[in-house]
Design a protein that fits this description.
8% helix, 22-stranded antiparallel beta barrel, five-stranded mixed β-sheet, 11 helices, mainly beta
Length: 852
């Protein structure tokens, strides 16, 4: 493996910049190391003449074997377009649930957004180091490192367009992307614009069965009795019809007589409310990302990123309803007594949101000797506006001067619009210094010192509930110290029979202006008894104050939200309240984790992996779920019912649950193998590039997650909720005990296919059906995804238009599988219809991508 000095080909001057940053880092008592040492040292003048700068990772990782090591052909097998997509795919395969520490060309970044929009054509190599490896660079004991090496010289413009459809119809999505990229040595610039648009999907387009309405509302209107809305309308009408009449459609005539209503006796007009309720909203998103990085001096690099985004969403929540009372004194009334006229309004009630955000991030890395420093400054501005329609009255008596059969009385239905706003501004400054302080027989003791300061301000207002307007300011400061101690070493011949063993410890002191002071700590062990075996263990405890957003988000009241009521077994439309909660308390987490990697067959890159995690969360914060029997019984004041026991209002603002304890194991294997093809260009005996046989690359992964226990204690004194035995917190059912995930990919000569499979086991949800405790059964679910792609430039190299052109086709949930939900009698509650569980179903997407 070639490791070249990262300063190759860059200017050596710029003394003013160096002096400025030296003053900036004056608080660090020890200098930082030179770039050449970070990359493993210079290889001499002959190396400097080579065109590729291959920096796998800083020298501190030289003895750690990657868990994934992807060359361009392996990267190509994922069929993705940008670095963030690639990292996301790799993390999904690994079952990763945290942020990694990112290195690019040996330099640490503070956010994936600083490199994520770069096209994959700019990447020469991506390596994923095992969990725990990040401690050597000042990361957490449970973090892993992802190291990305870029190509030496890239100049490209990338255009992507994709269209996705649901095979069941009525839904489609489009996305487009334009990227301008320039990489030259260790200087890079990238600008990316992404646009995504998805159409709305209505309940009527998935044949959703609607719950029975309280009254027979309709567009054209129905006449019913009043005040007894279930009783006889008018004795004269019943006499004409020859039977008691309780409902009749209003005839389309200006001055109907009683006989006109008799023609529609007990035959109500019907409107499918599903035509005005969205299963999925209409959305449109714009993202603009610009980044620039360069080496300011041989020992100094800088990376600046600016990102702007906007997202717009529109829901439809049904139609307004009204019951107008028509008096017999009204000249237009043919009835001898008061009657009710039940109407739907013509315009659907909507809920609209617009989210705008801006983010500016500057990272400066300095290296001198054996030390490195990372300075990060960040500013974020986030704005959220929500508008919601609601009906302010539900009808009333009609004036005698109003003819309901000629006037549009639905225009009299009063509709109000509520507005909620929030704006969050945050500023961050962080300095991290890492390097060795003492040399032991097994190696250097690596230490990290970090200082952090942040200032946050959130303002929110709401016309829904003005008493919950917020203006919250928070400042926090923290110091962190970390040490990584090598105990044994094969390379140093110190207790080498044990293998490579190191211990790490971390302590953080955090003070927040509104929540007090927290002390966080962790300890860990990393052991490689043999080159083929890696073992890592971690014990971590953290205290977290509630985020400002969950404290101060504006209150929003949304009518017409459909939920399942597990206390009655009914599906009902309710008014839903969500937003912030100023009374939340800090959360404390304890995490115990052990992970292992066993390299079984090196020539096949076949390795097994396993990770056991024990999470103990105290006072953990969660939005209150709408459909949980345990939660409804524990928080009866959050679930309001009418005099008949029908659920009408749910308050889902977040709360502190007492505790949550979960134990799980994820294990599996991965294989990465080149099956054939010619030698790489430039090697002795290699054929000319035009005649070189392409490599065939095979990748396989399979993982099994098993949850041993998952229990929640909502409040002290209440029984624990066992999520594995039907005690769900939320509508999605209880915890699945078993889940299998696997992928398989094969590529050759620019043509490839990648398939994925996910299997979720059975689960249950304790409910109450028809007044009797019952259990809903959720079937297992097996889904398959397939993505195929072809690089036209390599398939038909003689065509000039094909150069850099890629066609991709992706099918998600290719079998259109839907989960089945049944009670003990085999019935499916309305809220668990397949259209609610997976509205879109199988989708097909075609993607066209051109690199110029």
């Amino acid at each position: 493996m070639r490791v070249l000095e990262s300063g190759t080909g860059e200017p050596q001057g710029r003394h003013l910049t160096r002096a400025f940053v030296a003053l900036l880092l004056a608080s660090a008592p020890i200098p930082v190391r030179a770039a050449g040492a970070a990359a493993g040292g210079a290889q001499g003048a002959s190396d400097q003449s080579q065109r590729d700068i291959i920096i796998i990772a800083p020298r501190i990782f030289h003895d750690i074997r990657p868990q994934r090591d992807l060359d361009p052909e392996a990267i190509e097998s994922y069929g993705v377009s940008t670095v963030d997509e690639l990292v996301g795919e790799v993390q999904t395969e690994l079952g990763e649930d945290g942020d990694p520490v990112i290195f690019v060309n040996g330099q640490r970044l503070n956010d994936l957004n600083q490199i994520g929009a770069l096209p994959i054509e700019a990447v020469r190599r991506l390596q994923v180091l095992p969990r725990g490896s990040a401690v050597r660079a000042g990361g957490g004991s449970g973090q892993r490192v992802i190291s990305i090496t870029l190509k030496r010289d890239v100049r490209s413009a990338t255009v992507t367009a994709a269209h996705k459809i649901a095979t069941e119809g009525h839904w489609n999505g489009e996305r487009g992307e334009t990227i301008l990229t320039r990489v030259h040595g260790l200087t890079r610039a990238n600008v990316a614009l992404r646009v995504r648009d998805e159409t709305a999907l209505l309940e009527s387009q998935r044949d959703i069965v609607q719950p029975a309405a309280t009254l027979p509302y309709a567009f054209g209107g129905n006449v019913i009795g009043y005040p007894d809305t279930a009783g006889e309308i008018d004795p004269g009408l019943s006499a004409l019809a020859g039977e008691p009449v309780t409902v009749a459609a209003i005839p389309a005539t200006a001055n109907p007589a009683l006989a006109d209503f008799a023609a529609n006796a007990n035959n109500a007009a019907v409107t499918d409310i599903g035509q005005f309720r969205t299963l999925r909203p209409k959305t449109r998103n714009y993202d603009l990302n610009g980044s620039f990085a360069t080496r300011l001096a041989p020992w100094l690099t800088a990376n600046a990123t600016v990102e702007l985004s906007r997202g717009v969403t529109r829901y439809e929540r049904g139609l307004p309803v009204a019951l107008f009372v028509l008096s017999p004194s009204n000249p237009a009334s043919p009835f001898s007594n008061s009657v009710g006229l039940a109407y739907y309004g013509k315009r659907p009630l909507t809920f609209r949101t617009r989210k705008d955000s801006g983010d500016a991030n500057l990272t400066i890395d300095a290296e001198w000797g054996s030390w490195s420093a990372n300075l990060n400054a960040r500013h974020t501005d986030y704005r959220d506006i929500s508008r919601s329609d609601r009906q302010t009255q539900f009808g009333g008596a009609l004036a005698d001067s109003v003819n309901p059969f000629t006037a549009d009385i639905t225009s009299m239905i009063p509709i109000g619009s509520d507005l909620a706003r929030s704006r969050s501004i945050s500023n961050l400054a962080q300095l991290l210094v890492t390097g060795p302080i003492v040399t032991l027989p097994a190696g250097d003791i690596q230490t990290t010192f970090e200082g952090h300061a942040a200032w946050n301000h959130l303002r929110s207002s709401s016309t829904f509930a003005s008493f919950n307007n917020a203006d919250i300011r928070r400042s926090d400061q923290s110091i962190r110290g970390q040490v990584n101690v090598p105990l044994t070493s094969r390379a140093k011949n110190f207790l080498g029979a044990i293998g490579d063993l190191s211990a790490n410890a971390e302590y953080t002191r955090v003070h927040t202006s509104d929540a007090g002071t927290f002390s966080n700590h962790s300890v860990g062990l990393i052991w490689d008894p043999r080159p083929a075996f890696h073992l890592e263990g971690e014990l971590r405890q953290t205290g977290l104050p509630p985020a400002l957003s969950v404290l101060g988000d504006p209150t929003i009241i949304a009518p017409g939200v459909r939920i399942f009521d597990p206390l009655t077994g009914q599906t009902v439309d309710v008014t839903e309240i969500f937003g912030g909660n100023r009374n939340l308390r800090p959360e404390t987490d304890k995490i115990r984790r052990v992970s292992a990697i066993l390299r079984l067959v090196p020539r096949l890159n076949l390795q097994a992996n396993a990770e056991y995690t024990d999470i103990d969360r105290r006072r953990f914060i969660s939005s209150l779920p709408a459909a949980s029997l345990s939660v409804m019984l524990a928080f009866p004041d959050r679930f309001i019912r009418n005099s008949e026991g029908v659920l009408t209002t749910v308050d889902l603002r977040p709360v502190n649950f007492d505790s949550n304890r979960q134990k799980r194991l994820r294990w599996g294997f991965s294989l990465n193998r080149k099956l054939g093809g010619g030698p790489p260009p430039g090697t002795p005996g290699a054929a000319a590039p035009a005649s070189r046989r392409p490599n065939t690359y095979l990748q396989l992964t399979a993982n099994h997650t098993i949850v041993f226990s998952d229990q929640i204690l909502i409040r002290p004194g209440l029984p624990a909720v066992d999520l594995l035995k039907g005690g769900a917190i939320g509508i999605a059912s209880g915890r699945v005990r078993h889940q299998l995930d696997s992928t398989a990919a094969m590529t050759s000569g620019g043509v490839g296919v990648r398939a994925g499979m996910t299997w979720r086991g059975k689960s249950s949800l304790i409910s109450r059906i028809n007044g009797t405790t019952d259990s809903l059964r959720f079937s297992s679910l097996l889904t398959f995804n397939v993505r195929a792609f072809a690089d036209a430039g390599r398939v038909i190299p003689q065509a000039k238009w094909a150069k850099g052109f890629r066609l991709a086709l992706e099918a998600v949930n290719i079998t259109n599988a839907h989960q089945k939900v049944r009670d003990s009698l085999g019935n499916t509650p309305l809220q668990y219809q397949p259209g609610y569980r997976d509205p879109i179903g199988r989708t097909i997407e075609i993607e066209l991508r051109k690199v110029f």
